[in-house]
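User: New here, please read:
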Amino acid sequence: MIASVSTALLDRPGLLVAVAATDPVRAADLAARIALAGHRLADKLAEAELVLADAEARTPTGIPVLRLDAQAGLPLTLSPAQLGAAIRAAAVGLHVTLPHGMSDALLTPRELEILVCLGEGLSNKSIARSLGISAHTVKFHLEAVFTKLEAGSRAEAVAKGLRRGLIDL
């Protein structure tokens, strides 16, 4: 019976998700994120299949809860696709986390492009030409990549990106 319920939740186009947040602005942000992730906002808590909550919100018992907050659960920087997958996983009872050490190291799509170019051995100028951006912008993104991956060099950033599954070579 549990497997059929889980499969039904996974196959449905959009789950009904309620929001639990102490701040109305945060509640509106979470509601918008639900829509971007391809799910629907539940009008009533009783009809929700999952609660998307911030760190401070009280949540009901008997319904799966997914915390979306950098300190208490998943980071706010999740892409809509990542959030959509996390909502589906949590709704069927899975505990959703990022790999160890990754909560503060989510790279933006542009930072991932830069990391891939690093893995290909491109110079800053070559990366800039390849991506249609300035060398200064490449340098800015490289600094962010190094900081997020806690890397001291280009080679170390690529090695950490490979180990964490961020890039493939």
